[in-house]
């Protein structure tokens, strides 16, 4: 093992050889997929086989797979091997109907753990680190994905799970945690608990790295997290349908997430036409698993919006990088004729020093049409009963948001901790128009 790479031969594979490897693995994945009831029926009707794929671009001949397809295939219609070979399942969240369930063989779990170890290693994590996982375990993939990756890497691993901030802080101090994993929205709340207890996470912990993901977040949020904790915050991307975390991860340069192309085939397309877009242009990500044994998924429509970063990374890894997730194609809302993504609003709020980490976008309707209200928590040091001061801040935020989204929202400033909190992913939009 080199000092920089977890798997140097794979991570630095020249692009032509990497494309050959992907084509070989894509054909193998199609052959496996044909064993499943879903793909077997679909591909035979369309006369698709591994031999249909002559070149890399032929992947576009294959039909798109959607989350609705996965839900309709629940629980076993995508399975390509005997049930006796399955040793775990995870599934997406969902309150109605079937979730999208993913089934794993031992090979699949081993491949996933290796990708997680590779991802963490790329940021500078090493076996001597103490890793604290502040993520939910269970059906959510974030907990066990990082757990097995950190163990594969050789770290002392603390499976703290989500919530219970005072215990999180005690574990960090008692065991000398150097790396922690969390959803971004929780870290603002954790920082507040540090301060409430007279502690400074920079002075009173050994934190060096934070792994953040599972929620779309702006660069402004990442910079704020780094400032609060005095630690580098590395962006990651994953989704249950593609195993979980570890699909793409930043390296130590923090200039985009390396998508591990030996295990995933990446396309960026126009979300309306599904045609490819040029590198550097934002589009929707289409992903294909290349190393999934039990349940390969071909051309999955992720709904996540990003772009390919066209230049090479100084780290020497040859896998293409994607930019941070800009939002989801189905997250966009239309207000007064303007297309708005929640992350645009977050980007503005996180640049305003008086505002804390939590906010809520409320969409409603009155006799005059649709309304947009942004509720934002003040930092404790900015909380005041000075009406003139608060009104000036409200007007400043409204003007900044108008410049960004072309709509002037109503602004409601609330005290620290007053907005509702979720243990899992933060709810950023509340749409009451229906």
From TrEMBL:
Monomer. Residues 337-433 form the AMP-dependent ligase C-terminal domain. The keyword DNA repair does not apply. Belongs to the phenylacetyl-CoA ligase family. It comes from Oligosphaera ethanolica. It comes from the Bacteria. Residues 79-287 form the AMP-dependent synthetase/ligase domain. This is Phenylacetate-coenzyme A ligase. GO terms for molecular function: nucleotide binding; phenylacetate-CoA ligase activity. Gene3D superfamilies: 3.30.300.30, N-terminal domain of ligase-like. Keywords: Ligase, Nucleotide-binding, Phosphopantetheine, Phosphoprotein. Its EC number is 6.2.1.30. It catalyses: 2-phenylacetate + ATP + CoA = phenylacetyl-CoA + AMP + diphosphate.
């Amino acid at each position: 093992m080199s000092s920089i790479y977890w798997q140097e031969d794979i991570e630095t594979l020249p692009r032509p050889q990497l494309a050959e490897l992907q084509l070989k693995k894509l054909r193998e994945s199609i052959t496996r997929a044909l064993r499943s009831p879903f793909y077997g029926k679909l591909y035979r009707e369309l006369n698709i086989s591994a031999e249909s794929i002559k070149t890399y671009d032929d992947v576009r001949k294959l039909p798109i797979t959607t989350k609705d397809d996965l839900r309709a295939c629940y629980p076993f219609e995508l399975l390509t091997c005997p049930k006796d070979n399955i040793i775990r399942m995870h599934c997406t969240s969902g309150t109605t109907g079937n979730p999208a369930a993913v089934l794993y063989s031992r090979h699949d779990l081993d491949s996933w753990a290796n990708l997680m170890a590779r991802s963490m290693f790329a940021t500078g994590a090493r076996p001597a680190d103490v890793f604290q996982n502040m993520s939910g375990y269970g059906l959510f993939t974030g907990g066990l994905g990082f757990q097995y990756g950190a163990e594969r890497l050789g770290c002392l691993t603390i499976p703290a799970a989500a919530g219970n901030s005072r215990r999180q802080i005690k574990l960090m101090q008692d065991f000398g945690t150097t790396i922690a994993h969390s959803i971004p929205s929780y870290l603002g709340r954790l920082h507040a608990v540090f301060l409430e207890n007279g502690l400074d996470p920079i002075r009173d912990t050994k934190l060096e790295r934070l792994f953040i993901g599972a929620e779309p977040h702006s660069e402004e949020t990442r910079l704020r997290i780094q400032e609060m904790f005095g630690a580098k915050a590395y962006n990651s991307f994953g989704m249950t349908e593609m195993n979980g975390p570890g699909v793409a991860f930043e390296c130590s340069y923090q200039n985009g997430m390396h998508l591990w192309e030996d295990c995933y085939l990446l396309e960026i397309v126009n979300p309306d036409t599904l045609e490819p877009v040029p590198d550097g242009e934002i589009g929707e990500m289409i992903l294909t698993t290349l190393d999934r044994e039990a349940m390969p998924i071909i051309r999955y429509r992720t709904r996540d919006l990003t772009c390919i970063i066209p230049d090479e990374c100084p780290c020497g890894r040859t896998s293409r990088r994607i930019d941070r997730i800009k939002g989801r194609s189905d997250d966009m809302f239309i207000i007064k004729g303007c297309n708005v993504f929640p992350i645009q609003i977050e980007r503005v709020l996180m640049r305003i020093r008086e505002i804390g980490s939590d906010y809520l976008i409320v969409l409603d309707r009155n006799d005059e049409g649709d309304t947009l209200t942004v509720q934002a928590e003040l930092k404790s040091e900015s909380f005041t009963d000075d009406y003139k001061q608060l009104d000036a801040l409200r007007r400043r935020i409204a003007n900044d948001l108008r410049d960004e989204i072309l709509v002037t929202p109503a602004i409601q400033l609330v005290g620290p901790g007053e907005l509702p909190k979720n243990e899992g992913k933060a709810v950023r939009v509340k749409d009451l128009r229906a």
